[in-house]
Amino acid sequence: MRSYPQSQKPRYSDRRSAGQELADALQQFAGRDDVVVLGLPRGGVPVAHEVAKSLGAPLDVFVVRKIGMPGHEEFAIGAIASGGTRILDEGLIHRYQLPEPAVEAICRRERSELERRERLYREGRALINLAGRLVILVDDGLATGSTMRAAIQAVRGLRPARIVVAAPVGAPGTCRALARVAESVICPFMPEPFAAVGLWYGDFSPTTDEEVRALLAMPTGKQRLERRA
Length: 229
Description:
The chain is of the alpha/beta class. 34% of the residues lie in helices and 18% in strands. β4 (72-81) and β5 (85-88) form a beta hairpin.
């Protein structure tokens, strides 16, 4: 069992409770016909499911993969997303003198995993049509923001009317930075110091592919929104 300093006890018992609190902060979007909730897999999907259920909105998945530092994969140096979007932090790559072949090898590996997840989660279904919609992008936390930034860039190319970033917990600086590239950032808890997303959850067990597929199969709201051809 993890031990926490008094000032850093978990805020949320698990992703489901975090999603319920996040949904409370998003009630201004409840009942609207144009809202679509996109969960970033895997951990963002259980949170997004609670949000979509509360708002009465359709839920879909938007696959994004973090590009991790060689040897320290949890430290993001970039991200890739559906549709070919790729973001690399050239400053970090230069600072740590990362060789280009090593970075490209990680990108190829993560692209392969992204394509595997697309096939597994979608089972041939197309992404919900996002053109003219209010898209709420949900993850279980915002640390460096690279994954969410890639998702924003990729979704922006699908012509939504507005993008709202939503997460139960986030680093204050990251949330401020994302507010410059999305129309809105909703984050109920921005601790300082932040440390890591998992620190603020009692149960931060990895979400499985099977859990993602099961949640996507559950109705959450208006499922009649047309999907992209």
